[in-house]
Structure formats: C-alpha cells, structure tokens
Amino acid sequence: MTLYFIGLGIGDEKDISLKGLEAVKSCSNIYLENYTSVLQCSKENLEKLYGKKIILADREIVEKKPEHTILKHAKKENTAFLVVGDPMCATTHIDLMLRAKKENIPIKVIHNASIISAVGITGLEIYKFGKTTSIPFENKDVKAPYNVLIDNLEKGLHTLFLLDLNPKDKKFLTVKKAIKYLEKQGLTKDTKILACSGIGSDYQTIKYGKPDILKDIDFKKPPYCLIIPAKLHFMEEEALKQYE
User: Fold this and answer.
1) Rg (the chain; Cα; Å)
2) Are the beta carbons of 197 and 224 closer than 8 angstroms?
3) For residues 14 and 22, what is the distance between their CA atoms, to the nearest angstrom?
4) Per-residue DSSP letters for 169-196?
5) CB 151 within 8 Å of CB 131
6) Which residue ranges in the chain fall short of pLDDT 70?
7) Which residues contact 133 (CB under 8 A, 6 or more apart)?
C-alpha cells in the first residue's frame, strides 16, 4: 500500500500529470488538501475526471488527525493526497510525509508546477527571488512580512507575498487590503509592485504599477499574490512593461 503525494498544478483539473492521474486511478481513498491554496475548478470537475469521490481535507485532518484518516487508510489501501501546486512546497505536507514514514507507510511524490515557478510569467528571474512570505488576514500587529521584504531588498532579491486565504469559507485577502498593510508598514507610494490573480488560469491578471493604481484595479478570481522587485536587469524591465 502506498500514500501518493500528488501535485495538481495551478490551473484546472487538466493540469494533473499523466503519472499523477494514473496514480489517482489506482487509489481507493482520495484526499484533496483544501486550505493552503485553491484550484481553478470545482471538486466535482476533479471527480468527473477521476471517476472517484474526493474527501476535502482541512487543516484539522492534515495536521492534527492524519492518523485517524489519511494515514489510517494508507496502511490498508493505496491513498492519494492531492495538493494544489506542488505537494512539497508547504511545510505541513512535509510533516505528513514524515509521519507516514514513521508509520512505515511507503510514499511516492509526483511533482507539478507551483506558484513558486509560475511567477516566472512576470519576466522576473526566478533565481533572483529571496524568501517568500505570506500576509495574513489578521495583520494589525504583524511585522514579519515587511521585515522579509526589507531583508530581501538589502540583498538585491525580489519578494513574493502570498495572500491569505480560507477556501472553506470562501475568504481571500484582496490585493487592495494587502497593499494597505504594506503601506502601514512603511511602503512608499512610489514603490512599483506586481499584483497577480489566478496565475496559471485562462483568466489570470497581472498588473505592474504604483500602489494607488493597483488598489483601484478589480482583480478577478483568487488566489492572489504580490511581488515587489529589487533592482531590475534590463531584460526584466522590458518584460514588466507588458503589465503596466
């Protein structure tokens, strides 16, 4: 019996790899991680493609009670743990993998595209990104995300901000609110930002400009992220012009 960690990519149900789809079809139990990101399609679309029922796995199931659900099933039958993006880009998934190994459950990881690689569509050089950080819903006294930005800029590195989300309750931190948070921390009105929504989907939106301009734009469907570039290479400057 095997526990499969399967990346779904960041688009819709068709982004799964052939290897991933074959693995899903071999599984009796299929869990979809439902709190670190959101796919650009419904659970029903996935079920139609797979021909199988899917169990939505919230933080409680994945982090606190996997021994009673995911790992319990994986000891008896092939079980799939589906993750939007790449399955190993979140610490919580690594923790689940380590728990499975302690239970002597064989695992197999099937990778896919994630936001970490997909931001290359902006034209910024991937190897020039520093530490990635998140802006939470409750951020009144939160300093860490802005401190990450300052540290990255001092090193000449771009900063990717992932905006908080709660797919279960359909709550998503908006671009406007995230920019307001950064401004309260000290971001100047002349700082140019990349704001992105739905990267990897047919309706992705990417805009590059100053805070006041971006706050007035209606970014469509989530997930959302912001990027504040460091010093730009001339090729990066040229690429960013298409999003102004």
Assistant:
1) 19
2) yes
3) 13
4) GTEE--HHHHHHHHHHHT--TT--EEEE
5) yes
6) none
7) 144, 145, 148, 149, 159, 160, 161, 162
206: β partners: 196
Identify residue 195 by its one-letter amino acid code.
A
pLDDT for the residue numbered 91: 86
Whole-angstrom distance, CA of residue 162 vs CA of residue 135: 6
Residues 3-38 have pLDDT tens digits of 999 999 999 999 999 999 999 999 999 999 999 998
All structural domains of the chain, each given as residue ranges with its CATH number in brackets, are 3-113 (3.40.1010.10), 116-243 (3.30.950.10)
| Cα end-to-end span (Å), the chain | 51
Does 145 sit behind a cis peptide bond, omega within 30 degrees of 0 on the bond before it? no
**In percent, how much of the chain has pLDDT > 90?**
91
Contact 228, 157 (CB under 8 A): no
CA distance 230 to 79: 43
pLDDT in tens, 87-103: 999 888 999 999 999 99
Strands 224-228, 159-163: pairing is antiparallel
